Amino acid sequence: MDIIGRIDELCSQRGITKYRLSQMTGISQSAFSKMKREQNTLSVETINRICEALGISVTQFFSESGNYPDLTGEQKQILDRWEKLDPEKRQFAFLMLEQLGGL
C-alpha cells in the first residue's frame, strides 16, 4: 500500500490541506514533504496521529474505501458518507443523531 498516497486520498476526500493536517497532527509540512519525497516508512505513532486527526481508525486507514464486509448496503452508504465529513461536520451529524434518539 502507498501510505502517503492513502493520506493524500483521505485528505482530499475531507477537503483537508497538508497545512491543516500539519496543524492537526503536530507533524510539520516539511516532514510530510520529506516522507513523500523519500517514501519513508511511517512509524505506528505517526500513523496513529494522522488517523486521529482524520477521525478514522488505523483499520479504516489500511482498508480499501467502502470495504465493510459485515454491514448492510445502507450502513455502508452511511459510513462512506461519514468518512468524507470533516471533524466539525461529524460532530454536528453526531449531535443530530443524538437528537433523533439514535444514541
From TrEMBL:
Keywords: DNA-binding. SUPFAM superfamilies: lambda repressor-like DNA-binding domains. The lineage of its organism: Bacteria, Bacillati, Bacillota, Clostridia, Lachnospirales. Coiled coil: none annotated. GO terms for cellular component: cytosol. This is Helix-turn-helix transcriptional regulator. Gene3D superfamilies: lambda repressor-like DNA-binding domains. Residues 7-61 form the HTH cro/C1-type domain. Signal peptide: none annotated. It comes from Brotaphodocola catenula. GO terms for molecular function: DNA binding; DNA-binding transcription factor activity.
